[in-house]
Amino acid sequence: MAEAKWYVVHTYSGYENKVKVDIEKTIENRNLQEQILEVSVPMLEVAELKNGVEKLADKKMFPGYVLIHMVMNDDTWYVVRNTRGVTGFVGPGSKPVPLTEAEMAGLGFGKKEVSMDYAVGDTIVVTAGAWKDTIGAIKAINEGKKTLTISVEMFGRETPVELNFTEVKKM
To answer: Which of 5, 27, 43, 66 is 20 to 30 A (C-alpha) from 106?
Structure first.
């Protein structure tokens, strides 16, 4: 079986999420889960200032485009190309060109998993951020968010501080 690669599909502007949902439905209906692995509309969290209040909002990184991780063959090409709202694959002529590993890493898709070898009660040193060089004991671990909570003494009180796994190291 051929290797799955990431391809870029051009869509009508504003139809990115509809195209994603339609392709996912077609994958399920035609049993193509082994060939089309993931459909993604890359989003970027942006801070917006409205009426003097800052709010976080998701913006599309590439309006008018959808990323698809798939094995390219006649069936998958046909399914994607004939989805309502899709204008075509990105590439010269009619031949889709997969994204390179470097391009995917630049988008944050090739990130490696952060290994977590911490346990509640371990003593750690903060290596980055506002709490740099602070020593504390781990009180809680959130593997989903890849964060841990330590207690730091501030103004004579114990205060919980949440840190990313990448900002700390074991003592």
So the answer is: 27
